[in-house]
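Q: What structure does this chain adopt?
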Amino acid sequence: MTLHIETPLAHSLPLSMISHKHVWLKYEALQPSGSFKLRGIGALCEAYATQGKTRFISSSGGNAGIAVAYAGRQLGIPVTVVVPETTTARAKALIAQEGANVITHGASWAEANARAQTLLDDPSVAFIHPFDDPTIWDGHATMIDEIARSHIVFDSIILSVGGGGLLSGVVAGMQRNGLSHLPVIAVETYGADSLFQSVEKGRHVELEAISSIATSLGAKKVCENAFQATSTFDIRCARVHDSEALDACERFLDDHRILVEPACGAALAVVYHHHESLLSDVHAPLVIVCGGVTASIAQIRDWKQASTIIRPT
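A:
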């Protein structure tokens, strides 16, 4: 039983016209849980189910928790998700809607994760990490398998980085499909930029706090595997402002009729806001539309109104 679906891969005329490039989109926002997270988390949940685990515990800022809750409901296994206080009411409602128990604890994901560890009180209970697990990376890599089977011509991948699970999976998928020579543009928002700062300083950095509104990118420390990948592959780290990510969300809704959250908007902002220094040698980028369902359009517009939108000149 595979819990994720094969998602559409399409050429984007609006983004191609804006960027004067040939832009492709991998629509992970159309996964049943609303984000790419279901690929890897679903694979991990299935693996634990075959081992006879009877309960899942996870920690999440939102989308990973929704994916675990969805997987648990599909597999008939009860789920508890510990979320930080920064998690939106919408995210908590969506986790509960899948039948999971939601516990709110701590000011950050790290504190919620520590609380989740205290619930592992029985060998039959499995902990589902939101991003740092090789089985999760292998599951995420299936999106690259699908892209490779399509035989489209692309010369780079643009994706958002939070904890590093997506980056780890994409790199693994590129490696096993003979695509590891292509550059990956790894995008974070200012205030949730652990990978950027780690690469800039040449050591694995943990942020003091998350100040970005893109809370789905809110791991204070990117996973070691993602950080190490930057020294082996052509990974180009980038940052965008919250205002750019929010603007990209709204424009993407207008252009493609799909709502994504700011964590996904960060990757789209590279194209919408003409970050030419990142795209100068790129002609056919493929953007992973990683999705996310924890923010409504009303909330995005509220955030946007409170921000200073930075538009290209």
